[in-house]
Design brief:
Strand order of the largest sheet: 1-2-4-3-5-6-9-10-11
Distance between the termini: 25 Å
Strand content: 5-15%
Number of strands: 11
Largest sheet: 9 strands, mixed
Oligomer: single chain
Structural class: alpha/beta
Radius of gyration: 22 Å
């Protein structure tokens, strides 16, 4: 399980990110009426109706409606170490990163009311003579933390990184920010409906119980957890940093957040890189719907790779034989739960969970990721045959969170998605969608079309953001991305005529810049970050072959 939290963060080997950020890339990658913005807040909370850039930093920060104190605060920078058990903070301190909290209103319609904090970090520019500005980072999710990401981003940016203050932040209710914890018995809600109606009915009961539990523990904050409020927080961060405009690097869900920012705060962004883009018109509670073909291709391509390594993984000597091994695992899990691992790390997984594990293993076509998935599938095949198994190193901790909800707070990803877009509420409609999908997509259809907690969530307070104005951004995408599919990036490129698209052909990979190792992609992005000039036309790069 090495790649998203539903639509997820960039795969990375940087250990400073920790398991939460790595998991944010593994399971990928949410209104009954439009609520009126209170008088005086239409431009104060966001600038959607404003067209021109503010004339100066001070003008940008004259927000009114009680927001001035947030925009005019100055972060108290200090150590990133939060306590004796903090394993990430010492590494950030050693890398020269400083950390702080920014105070924001819980409810932007009531800015004099309750406040929360957003944790931020900063790796200051070292080439101050040629400093460009600050660049804000988001690693996806939704709910991916980025406070620990500046050192990784600086390495990706190479020489131009020294010209930026690189700023990470944990979005509201994520990571070191004011937290949300729904106390769920599992960390991942992206489960399959299983093989039959009984399995789906169990999913309906489970997903309703999750929504009820989160409402019971977080009712006072859930209405204020949304992408639009995170975008407002981003603009407060920009003001608190004293920046007239801010640059941005966002992966996966972070591309949606970045797009929302361009629509809410036109003229307040500088250079924006959106890697693995989501079509804003396609953003919805079943965020994975429509990705079935790309995932089937990624699985098939992986099966071809594994067939060439039968002596290592024992899954079959042809692509068809490997895929048959996958089918046997799924069928066995439908007959009864499989046991993988042993002792305290023994997990019983059924046909609602096995497709999640398979889906999680195919968002990255690099050699290490493919090998890791091969190890896991070998374990699943052994379990399907009733043999005792030992989990590959590193999987137990991720499974403890994904399948048991252990180790970290749960629920924030669903809270964001469900707080953004209203979901259908009739379980029978979900069942009909699942049944229609089975013929063409028997493995992934019941996963991508399944019901989720949003069906039982309170309805969002705001309409979702739609693209109504142009923005000059750089979009990066792989043609075989199994999470945020290539067609989403193409559509966002169409909606933003001044944007440009960098396409990587031939890669089944979610998130590219700085982590995939494609020189063509990295050089194009870094040239843009250095000059501020988009390519004259869309560009195409080609995946490296051995």
């Amino acid at each position: 399980m090495r790649s998203h939290e539903a639509a997820d963060a960039p795969p990375t080997t940087d250990r400073t990110l920790g398991p939460a950020a790595r998991r944010a890339s593994c399971v990928g990658l949410v209104l009954a009426a439009c609520l009126a913005i209170p008088p005086g807040l239409a431009v104060a909370a966001d600038a959607e109706s404003a067209g021109a850039a503010p004339a100066s930093a001070s003008a940008a920060n004259r927000s009114g409606a009680g927001l001035d104190r947030y925009y005019q605060q100055r972060p108290a920078w200090g150590s990133c170490v939060t306590g004796p058990d903090d394993t990430t903070g010492p590494d950030l301190d050693k890398a020269g990163v400083q950390c702080a909290d920014v105070t924001v209103p819980l409810d932007y319609a009531a800015p004099r009311g309750r406040t929360i904090t957003v944790a931020i970090s900063r790796l200051k520019a070292t080439d101050t003579r040629h400093r460009i500005g600050a660049i804000l980072l988001n690693t996806g999710g939704p709910g991916g933390p980025a406070r620990a990401y500046p050192p990784t981003a600086r390495a990706a940016m190479k020489e131009v990184g020294a010209r930026y203050d690189i700023v990470g932040f944990d979005p509201r209710f994520v990571g070191r920010s004011t937290p949300l914890n729904c106390g769920w018995p599992l960390g991942m809600t992206w489960l399959s409906a299983g093989a039959d109606r009984a399995g789906f009915d169990r999913q309906v009961a489970l997903q309703k119980s999750l929504a009820d539990k989160c409402r019971a523990t977080g009712a006072s904050v859930l209405p204020h957890i949304s992408t639009r409020n995170t975008a407002r927080d981003m603009d407060v961060i920009r003001g608190a940093l004293g920046e007239r405009k801010i640059s941005y690097l966002g992966y996966s869900y972070g591309t949606y957040l970045g797009t929302v920012y361009t629509q809410m705060f036109p003229g307040r962004h500088d250079r924006m890189v959106l890697d693995g883009a989501i079509d804003p018109g396609d953003y919805r509670p079943r965020l994975l719907e429509g990705t079935e073909r790309e995932n089937e291709k990624a699985l098939s391509d992986w099966a071809g790779w594994a067939a060439e390594r039968h002596d290592t993984y024992g899954l079959g000597r042809t692509r068809a034989e490997v895929l048959a091994s996958v089918d046997r695992v799924v069928a066995a899990s439908a007959r009864g739960p499989l046991t993988i691992g042993s002792g305290a790390d023994a997990f019983r997984i059924d046909d609602s969970q096995v497709p999640l594990l398979l889906f999680s293993g195919i968002a990255d076509d690099t050699e290490p990721a493919r090998a890791s998935f091969g190890e896991l599938l070998s374990v699943l095949v052994a379990a399907a045959g009733g043999a005792p198994t030992t989990l590959p190193a590193g999987f137990a901790g991720e499974l403890r969170y994904a399948l048991r909800g252990e180790g970290e707070p749960t629920g924030v990803q669903s809270a964001i998605i469900c707080g953004d877009v209203a979901a259908g509420r009739d379980p029978e409609q979900y069942w009909r969608d699942i049944e229609r999908s089975r013929a063409a997509h028997p493995l992934f259809g019941p996963l991508t079309r399944n019901i989720n907690p949003c069906a039982f969530w309170d309805r969002p307070r705001e309409e979702p953001t739609r693209v109504r104005r142009d923005a000059a951004v750089l979009i990066v995408a792989a043609t075989g991305d199994p999470r945020t599919t290539y067609k989403g990036s193409v559509e966002l490129r169409r909606q933003l005529p001044s944007s440009r698209l960098i396409t990587l052909e031939g890669a089944n990979r979610h998130a590219l810049y700085g982590s995939y190792g494609n020189t063509c992609v990295d050089d194009q992005v870094n040239k843009y970050l250095a000059t501020g000039k988009l390519p004259a036309k869309d560009r195409t790069c080609v995946k490296k072959t051995d």
